[in-house]
Automatic annotation (TrEMBL), chain A:
PANTHER family, sorted: METALLOPROTEASE TLDD, PROTEASOME SUBUNIT BETA TYPE-1
Main function: Non-catalytic component of the 20S core proteasome complex involved in the proteolytic degradation of most intracellular proteins. This complex plays numerous essential roles within the cell by associating with different regulatory particles. Associated with two 19S regulatory particles, forms the 26S proteasome and thus participates in the ATP-dependent degradation of ubiquitinated proteins. Component of the proteasome, a multicatalytic proteinase complex which is characterized by its ability to cleave peptides with Arg, Phe, Tyr, Leu, and Glu adjacent to the leaving group at neutral or slightly basic pH. The proteasome has an ATP-dependent proteolytic activity.
InterPro entries: Ntn_hydrolases_N, Proteasome_beta2, Proteasome_bsu_CS, Proteasome_sua/b, Proteasome_suB-type
Record's keyword terms, sorted: Cytoplasm, Nucleus, Proteasome
Full protein name: Proteasome subunit beta
Annotated compartments: Cytoplasm; Nucleus
Assembly: Component of the proteasome complex. The 26S proteasome consists of a 20S proteasome core and two 19S regulatory subunits. The 20S proteasome core is a barrel-shaped complex made of 28 subunits that are arranged in four stacked rings. The two outer rings are each formed by seven alpha subunits, and the two inner rings are formed by seven beta subunits. The proteolytic activity is exerted by three beta-subunits PSMB5, PSMB6 and PSMB7.
Keyword presence, Acyltransferase: no
Any one biological process term the GO annotation gives: proteasomal protein catabolic process
Pfam families tied to this protein: Proteasome
GO CC annotation: cytoplasm; nucleus; proteasome core complex
Length: 187, 333
C-alpha cells in the first residue's frame, strides 16, 4: 500500500514516496505529501498508522527546529536520525507506542549524503538504499542487483503499482523537488 | 495516556455505530459512522451537506438530527461517528476557538482549528471515542471582522509578517504554517489521528455512494445552484442505497460573509419525484366527469407537462361542448 524508497548517490540522496492517503477502501486524498522537512537538508519520510505518522513526524520536526533556534546551528542527519530513534524507542514500551516506519535522508557538509532506515521497533540502520511497504519486497532485489555507489543522477527506476509519487533530491544545495511521477510518465 | 480531567471514556449508548456493538454480524468492510456527510470547495465557497438520520444499531433513533454544527460565524463542521462525542467535541472546539479569538484578536484559521481538534482528540486514541468531522470554513483574516480597528489591523498584520519571516528561516517548504491564506478551506479530522486538507471529502457509511456522484460532477467552476443540486443529489443517492442514511438533507454554504443554511428538505419528495420520472411512460391521464376540479400532484416536470396536456384536452372538450371535464393524473408505483 504505502511506499517509500530512498537511494544514496555519491553526492546526493534521492527519495520518493507515494501520494495516497487512504481510509480502508476509500482513497481520501491522492496528492498527499509524506515528506517532512526537518531542516534545509534533511527530509523525514513517514508511513504507518493513520494519526501516528503526522503526530510523530511533526514532533520530531518541531524539536529539530527548536534545536536550531536554541543553539544557532542545525542538527546533522546522523544526530537527527539518532534523536528520532531515541524518541521512538522511548515510546515503544509506553502505553502509546507510535506505529511508524521512517526513512531519514540528509546531506551533511562533513559526512556527505546519508540515508537512514528506521522501522516501528526503532531499529536504525544507515544504508545506501532502502524502502518501506509492499513495494519494498520488489524494489530491494532490483536495487541489490543494480545499485552502484557511483551512480549518477540519470538512472533510476521504480516499480509502480500506485498512481503517483513525490520525488525529492537532497544534495549540498538543499532539497529539490523533482517532477512528480505518474503512470503516464512511464508509458 | 488518558486525559487528566474527568473526561474519561464512559459507557454511553453508541448512537450512530451500527452493528459494531452486537459483534454477531460480520461487516463486509469496516463500515462505521452510520451517516452520509460531504463537503467540497468550489468557486463560490464551501458547501457542506449531510443527511439527518441518527441510527442506533438498526433502529432510527432520530429522523431529524443535525449533523452539521456551526462552530463560529465562518466555520462549520460536519459530524460523523458517535453523535454524542461529535456534539461534545464541537462545543469544546467552539470554546477553544473563541478563547483564541479573544486572546489573539483574530480568528484561528480552519487549518489551525483542525490541528487543535486533532491534538485534543489524540489522548483518546485507542479508546471508543469516534469522531470523524470535516471542518469547512472561510479564512478571512481581519478584513471582514467589523470589530477590529485599523490600528489593531495593522498590528496584527505586522505580527503575521513577523511570524512568517521567523518561521521561514527555520523551515520552509510544504508546511508553511505562519502564512495566512484567505479563502475557503476544508479539513478532514478523525479521532484515529488523521488530519487531511483537501477540496472534496465525504464521510460515513454512505460515503462511497456520495463519492461516486461527487467525483463525476464537482469542479471548481460550478455555480452555487449547480453545486447545491450536486450535493443534494449525492446525499440522496447515498440515502437511497445506504440503510443508515436517510430522512432529510441539510445544506450549509460558507462564503466570505459567513455560513448560510438552506432549508431542510425531505428526501422523501425527491424519492417520489424519481419514481414518477421512472414510471413516466406508464402515466395515464384520466379525463373525468367532475365539476372542473383538477388534482395537482407535487413536483415533477413530467407531471406538469401531462397536466398541460390535460388542460388542452379540457379546453378542447369544452370547445366541443362536453361539460364538466376533469383532469387527473395517476402514476404507478
Amino acid at each position: 500500500m504505502e511506499y517509500l524508497i530512498g537511494i544514496q548517490g555519491p553526492d546526493f540522496v534521492l527519495v520518493a514516496a507515494d501520494n495516497v492517503a487512504a481510509s480502508s477502501i476509500i482513497q481520501m486524498k491522492h496528492d498527499y505529501d509524506k515528506m517532512f522537512k526537518l531542516s534545509e537538508k534533511i527530509l523525514l519520510l513517514c508511513v504507518g498508522e493513520a494519526g501516528d505518522t503526522v503526530q510523530f513526524a511533526e514532533y520530531i520536526q518541531k524539536n529539530v527546529q527548536l534545536y536550531k533556534m536554541r543553539n544557532g546551528y542545525e542538527l546533522s542527519p546522523a544526530a537527527a536520525a539518532n534523536f528520532t530513534r531515541k524518541n521512538l524507542a522511548d515510546y515503544l514500551r509506553s502505553r502509546t507506542p507510535y506505529h511508524v516506519n521512517l526513512l531519514l535522508a540528509g546531506y551533511d557538509e562533513a559526512d556527505g549524503p546519508g540515508l537512514y532506515y528506521m522501522d516501528y521497533l526503532s531499529a536504525l540502520a544507515k544504508a545506501p538504499f532502502a524502502a518501506h511497504g509492499y513495494g519494498a519486497f520488489l524494489t530491494l532485489s532490483i536495487l541489490d542487483r543494480y545499485y552502484r555507489p557511483e551512480m549518477h543522477r540519470g538512472g533510476e527506476r521504480f516499480i509502480l503499482n500506485l498512481p503517483s509519487f513525490n520525488v525529492r533530491l537532497i544534495d549540498r544545495e538543499g532539497i529539490h523537488d523533482l517532477e512528480k511521477l505518474t503512470l503516464a510518465s512511464f508509458l | 495516556m488518558p486525559s487528566q480531567d474527568s473526561m474519561e471514556p464512559t459507557f454511553s449508548l453508541p448512537i450512530g455505530l451500527p452493528l459494531s456493538s452486537s459483534h454477531s454480524v460480520p461487516l463486509p468492510f469496516p463500515m462505521s459512522h452510520g451517516t452520509t456527510t460531504l463537503a467540497f470547495i468550489f468557486q463560490g465557497g464551501v458547501l457542506a451537506a449531510a443527511d439527518t438520520r441518527s441510527s442506533c444499531s438498526g433502529l432510527v433513533a432520530c429522523p431529524a438530527a443535525q449533523k452539521i454544527l456551526p462552530i463560529h460565524s465562518h466555520l462549520v463542521g460536519t459530524t460523523s461517528g458517535t453523535s454524542a462525542d461529535c456534539a461534545l467535541w464541537k462545543r469544546i472546539l467552539a470554546r477553544e476557538l473563541r478563547l483564541y479569538q479573544l486572546r489573539h484578536g483574530r480568528r484561528l484559521s480552519t487549518g489551525g482549528a483542525a490541528k487543535l481538534l486533532s491534538h485534543m482528540l489524540q489522548p483518546f486514541k485507542g479508546t471508543e471515542l469516534c469522531v470523524a468531522a470535516t471542518l469547512c470554513g472561510w479564512d478571512g483574516g481581519e478584513m471582514d471582522d467589523n470589530q477590529m480597528t485599523d490600528v489593531e489591523n495593522s498590528a496584527s498584520l505586522n505580527l503575521e509578517k513577523a511570524k512568517t519571516q521567523c518561521l521561514s528561516t527555520a523551515v520552509g517548504g510544504q508546511q508553511c504554517f505562519g502564512r495566512e491564506r484567505s479563502g475557503p478551506s476544508l479539513y478532514y479530522v478523525c479521532s484515529d489521528g488523521t488530519r487531511l486538507k483537501g477540496t472534496l471529502f465525504s464521510v460515513g457509511s454512505g460515503s462511497p455512494y456520495a463519492y461516486s456522484v461527487l467525483d463525476q460532477g464537482v469542479q471548481w467552476g460550478l455555480t452555487v445552484q449547480e453545486a447545491v443540486s450536486i450535493a443534494r443529489e449525492a446525499v440522496f443517492r447515498a440515502t437511497y442505497r445506504d440503510a443508515y442514511s436517510g430522512n432529510c438533507v441539510d445544506l450549509y454554504h460558507i462564503t466570505s460573509k459567513g455560513w448560510t443554511r438552506r432549508n431542510r428538505e425531505d428526501l422523501k419528495e425527491e424519492y417520489y419525484r424519481e419514481k414518477e420520472r421512472q414510471s413516466g411512460d406508464s402515466q395515464r391521464i384520466m379525463v373525468k366527469d367532475f365539476k372542473g376540479k383538477a388534482f395537482r400532484r407535487m413536483g415533477g416536470e413530467f407531471t406538469a407537462h401531462s397536466l398541460a396536456l390535460c388542460r388542452k384536452v379540457q379546453s378542447k372538450s369544452l370547445q366541443l361542448g362536453v361539460k364538466g371535464v376533469d383532469c387527473q393524473s395517476t402514476s404507478r408505483y
